[in-house]
Amino acid sequence: MAGKWMLIFILTIGMMLPSWLMGTKVEAAEADGLSDIVIFENVPQADVTMEGNEFTLSALNVYEDGHFTKVDEGLVWKSKNSNVATVEDDGTVTFTGQPGRAWVTVSNGQFEDRIALDYKPDRSTKKKGKPEFKPSIKKQDGDRYNLVQHALENMTMEEKVGQMLMPDFRKWEGENVTKMLPEIEEMVQKYHLGGVILFRENVVQTEQTAKLVSDYQAASEKYGLLMTIDQEGGIVTRLQSGTDMPGNMALGATRSEEIAEDVGSVIGAELESLGINMNFAPVMDVNNNPDNPVIGVRSFGGNPELVGKMGVAYTKGLQQHGVAATAKHFPGHGDTATDSHLGLPEVPYDLERLKEVELYPFQQAMDAGIDAIMTAHITFPKIDDTKVISQKDGTEIALPATLSKKVLTGLMREEMNYEGVVVTDALNMKAIADHFGPVDAVIRAINAGTDIALMPVGLEEVASGVYDAVESGEIPMATIEDSVERILTLKLNRGIIKEETPQPIDEKIAEAEKVVGSEAHKAVEKEAAERSITLVKNDGVLPLDASGDEKVVVIGDTFIGDLADAVSDHHSNTTLISSENSALTDEQRAVVSEADKVIFGTYTYNVYSRSANHPQMQLMQDVMANTDAEVIGVGIRNPYDVMAYPGVDAYIAQYGFRDASFEATAATIFGANNPTGQLPVTIPGADGGVLFEYGTGLSY
C-alpha cells in the first residue's frame, strides 16, 4: 500500500514540474527546429580518407533553418555486422579484419542515419598473388546530405554576405586584442562573420591563444568561423609561442620535399591544437627578381618547378592536420620591385610567359587540391588592360588582379579550372586603399570572382554597402551564392563546424601546450635550418677550428647579437662589435686589427640596404680593406647581400633570423654542420651577369 501512495506522489509531483525539467534533449532540439541527424562522413564534402583500421565517425544535427552542428551527446551508435566492424559509444569504428560490409547507425532517439563500411580486397593495385584487404567508407546518397544547398536556401542575404567578410581585430581602442571583448563578439554576430584573421599581437601565449580562438568560435552564430593566420614560417611567423621554422627560401635551399612536408605538418599541428583552422600559406610566388622588397625569402626560390614541388609538399603537411592551406599571391608577386603594401606593382608579361613561370606553381597547387588561393594587388596589363580612375589623384591606372574578372574568373576559374575558395590579400594595403573606396573595392572584388574579402576597411560601411549592391542588382545574388557555396564546402571539407558541446577549454589548453613548441617540433626546425645553410663561397677559410686560440670578431648591426651568441657557443674567444652607427670607433678598429678571423653579418630587406652605398655595406668594404684577417660574410636574411661584397673570403646564405638558423650557421662555420644547402635563386653580378648560379652550394 505504501508503494502505491509513493507512485501517486511521484506522478503528482511530476505533473507539477515545469515542462523544461521534464523535457528531453530531443524535445529541446525540436523546439529549436531540429529536422534530421546525419553522419558527417555521408556528406559529399566530408573527407573520408582512411589510414589504419580504426577511425571515428561523427554526427551532425540538422535544423529547419538549414544550419547544422556537430553533436556528441545523447547518441546511440550501433553496428549491424560487428563481425566486420565494431563501433563504440563515441562513434569510434574498429575493423576486425573479417571481410564484408557492416552498417553503422546513429540515433538521437528521434532521427537516425546509417553508413556502409566495407572491408574488401583492394582492387586499385595490380599486385600478383592474394589481394590485400582494405577498409573503406561507402557514402549514402540522398538530398538529406546536401547540407550546403539546404543552408543556401534558408540563409538570409545578410548571413550570406557575412560569410564573405573576414576582418582583423588586431587592436581595439589602441590595445592589442588578446582576449574576447563584448564589442567584438557583438560584431561577429551582427555581421554573421564567416571568418577572422589573427596577427602576432593576438597570439602571445599558447593558453591565451587557445582561449581566444575558442571564444571566437563560441561567438559565431551557425556555421563556425574560419580562424586564419599568416603562419608562413621564417620572417612571417605569427605564433609567439610556436616553433619558429626557418622559412620558405631556406626550405628551397634544402631541396627536400620531405623536409618541406615535415615543416608544413609541424605548423599544421600547432595551429590545429590552438583551434586555428586555416593558414594563409604557402607563398607560391617565384622570386626571380632580386629587387623584390616584399616577397624575397618568403618564396621557395626563383625556379618555378622548385616552388611548385616545395609548395605542394608544404601544403600536404598542413592539410594532414585538417588545416586549410592557401597559395599566395595569385597570379604571382615574385617579379616585382614594388611592395603592394605601399604601392601598385606591375607585372608586364604575356600569358605564355606567365604560364611558364608565375602561374606554374599555382597550377601545381590547384591540381594537388589546395583549399584556397589568395590574390595579388598587382596589375597584369597583358591579361587585363582595363583602366580605372584612381580616387587618390584622378589619374588613370590599370585594374589590379584582385579586382579583375579577367584574372580571377577568366584566368583562374575558366582557364586554370580552379574550383576552390578565392580570398583577397588585405584590402587595407595601399595598392587598393589608395585608389579605391572601401565599399567600391569589395564590390569590385566580389564581382571579379573573389569569395572572401580580407580585412575590408570599415566593416559596418562595407557590409552595408554590399547589402545595397546585392539588393540593387549591382552584385548578382547568384554570385554571392556561388561564393558562399565554396566557403561552406571548404568548412565541411575541413570539419569546420559549430559544435553543440565544444571540448572543455582546460582540455584544449592542455593538449595545445603539449604540441606547440614541442621538442619533436624543435627537432624538425633544427634539421630544416641545418640542411638549408648554403656555403656559397669558400676560399679555403672554412671551417674554423673551434678548439683553437684564434681571436674571432663578429661585426654587424641588425640581429648581430644573435649571431655572436651562436658563434660564442662554439668558440669562447669571440668578440662582438655592434656597428649601430655603421662606423667603427678607434677602439673597435684596434680589436678588428688584432682579429684572426672576422665574421660580418649583413641584413638587407630592399635594394638600398643591399647597395654598395649603404652604410652597412660601406663598413663591410672598409673592414675587408683594412684587416689582414680573413672575412666571412653571412647574409642573415637575403642571399643577395654578397652582391655588395663579392670579394669576401667566404660567404654563407642563412635565409632568416630565427634562432635555429643562427645556430646552424655557427655550427657550419666551425664544421659541426657540413653544409648541403643549394642556392634556390640566381645571384646576379654588378655588370648584369651572374655572380653565383642557381644551385650553387659547397660542402666540406
UniProtKB/TrEMBL annotation:
What EC number(s) does the entry state?
A: 3.2.1.52
- Organism equals Halobacillus litoralis
Q: Which UniProt keywords apply?
A: Glycosidase, Hydrolase
Please report the name of this protein according to its UniProt entry.
beta-N-acetylhexosaminidase
- The lineage's top-level taxon is Bacteria
The enzyme's main class, written as a single word, is: hydrolase
Pfam families (alphabetical): Glyco_hydro_3, Glyco_hydro_3_C
The biological process GO terms on file are: carbohydrate metabolic process; peptidoglycan turnover
Gene3D superfamilies per record: 2.60.40.1080, Glycoside hydrolase family 3 C-terminal domain (3.40.50.1700), Glycoside hydrolase, family 3, N-terminal domain (3.20.20.300)
Which parts of the sequence belong to the Glycoside hydrolase family 3 C-terminal domain? 533-700
Q: What is the lineage of its organism?
A: Bacteria, Bacillati, Bacillota, Bacilli, Bacillales
As its record notes, the protein acts as a catalyst of: Hydrolysis of terminal non-reducing N-acetyl-D-hexosamine residues in N-acetyl-beta-D-hexosaminides
The Swiss-Prot or TrEMBL record describes its family as follows: Belongs to the glycosyl hydrolase 3 family.
InterPro entries according to UniProt: GH, Glyco_hydro_3_AS, Glyco_hydro_3_C, Glyco_hydro_3_C_sf, Glyco_hydro_3_N, Glyco_hydro_3_N_sf, Invasin/intimin_cell_adhesion, NagZ_Beta-hexosaminidase
Coiled-coil positions: none
